[in-house]
UniProtKB/TrEMBL annotation:
Its main location: endoplasmic reticulum. GO terms for molecular function: coenzyme A diphosphatase activity. Keywords: Endoplasmic reticulum, Hydrolase, Lipid metabolism, Membrane, Transmembrane, Transmembrane helix. The keyword Endoplasmic reticulum applies. This is FIT family protein scs3. GO terms for cellular component: endoplasmic reticulum membrane. InterPro entries: FIT (IPR019388). It is found in: Endoplasmic reticulum membrane. One of its GO terms (biological process) is phospholipid biosynthetic process. The chain crosses the membrane at residues 59-81, 93-111, 186-205, 217-240.
C-alpha cells in the first residue's frame, strides 16, 4: 500500500520547529555568532574549542552545506530519472529550474550583485577589509559585489596609511559587513527541504512494490539528504547569525519554494 503521509507538511513543520527552537536556544545560551559584526566575524567562534559544529571547518559545513544546491540537484535528478515514465514530467523539471533560478538570484547574481548582497547594502552594510591584526576598514561596495581579491600590491591606494599595511605577502577577499546579513544557509536549506519533500511525495504516493531498485536507492538517498538539511538547519540556528537574520533567511527560503509553484 502507498504511504499515507503528507511529507511536505511534515517537513515544513519539522523545519519550522527546528529553526525556532535552535534560535531560542542560541539566544538563551548565547551560542550564536553575529556574522555581520566586522570586529568579531573574522575570529573563531567563541565556542569553537568545545562545540564541533561551531567551527566553519566542520565536516557538515565543508562537504554538504557549502555545496547544498549541488547535493539537492543531484538528489532530485536521481529521483526524477528513476521515476516511472509517467512521473518524468517537464513540470517537475520546470520546478527544479525555477528553484535553481531563485538560488542564483538570491545568492549569486541578479543583473550584478545578488539580492542578498543588495539587501545588506541597502540596510546600511559596507564592504570591509579585515586585516590580520584584527583591524578593519571600509572600501567601496563594488569590490565586494565583484568578489575582488585585495592586497597592498594590487590595490595600493586602498592602503594609504602605513598603519594599514600588513606584514609580509598578504591578500584577502573583502566581505559585506554591518547591515542586515540574511542567513544564506537558512535560506538555501529551507528551500531545499521543501523542494525535495515535494518531489519525494510523488514516490511515496505509489506502492514501493512498483519501484525499481534504482528508484528505491533514489528515495533512500533523497530522504537522507532531507535529514542532513534538517540537521544543518539546527546547527546553523544554534551557532550562526542573529535571530532576525535567521528569520529572514527562513522567509526567503519559503518564498523561493513558493516561486516554483508560481512558475
Amino acid at each position: 500500500m502507498p504511504f499515507k503521509i503528507d511529507l511536505l507538511q511534515a517537513s515544513f513543520t519539522a523545519l519550522t520547529l527546528i529553526i525556532f527552537l535552535g534560535t531560542v536556544h542560541s539566544v538563551k545560551n548565547n551560542t550564536y555568532l553575529d556574522t555581520s559584526d566586522p570586529l568579531i566575524t573574522h575570529l573563531p567562534h567563541h565556542l569553537h574549542n568545545t562545540h564541533y559544529f561551531a567551527t566553519k571547518s566542520n565536516f557538515l559545513n565543508v562537504v554538504f552545506i557549502k555545496r547544498a544546491w549541488a547535493w539537492t540537484s543531484t538528489s532530485f535528478l536521481f529521483l526524477w530519472m528513476t521515476s516511472p515514465r509517467q512521473q518524468q514530467s517537464i513540470r517537475r523539471l520546470s520546478k527544479w529550474a525555477a528553484a535553481t533560478a531563485a538560488w542564483l538570484v538570491f545568492t549569486s547574481w541578479f543583473f550584478g550583485p545578488a539580492l542578498i548582497e543588495r539587501f545588506i547594502a541597502a540596510s546600511g552594510g559596507e564592504c570591509t577589509i579585515a586585516l590580520p591584526s584584527g583591524a578593519s576598514f571600509p572600501i567601496p561596495n563594488e569590490f565586494c559585489f565583484t568578489k575582488s581579491r585585495i592586497s597592498p600590491l594590487t590595490h595600493p591606494w586602498l592602503f594609504a596609511y602605513p598603519l594599514l599595511l600588513p606584514e609580509g605577502p598578504w591578500t584577502t577577499t573583502p566581505r559585506m559587513r554591518r547591515g542586515h546579513d540574511v542567513s544564506g544557509h537558512i535560506f538555501l536549506l529551507t528551500m531545499s527541504v521543501l523542494f525535495l519533500s515535494d518531489q519525494l511525495t510523488l514516490s511515496l504516493r505509489s506502492s514501493p512494490s512498483t519501484w525499481t531498485h534504482a528508484h528505491k536507492y533514489a528515495v533512500i538517498f533523497t530522504s537522507a539528504i532531507i535529514a542532513i538539511w534538517l540537521f544543518a538547519a539546527y546547527t546553523t540556528s544554534v551557532y550562526f547569525h542573529t535571530p532576525l537574520e535567521k528569520l529572514t533567511g527562513y522567509l526567503l527560503g519559503t518564498a523561493g519554494y513558493a516561486f516554483t509553484w508560481i512558475i
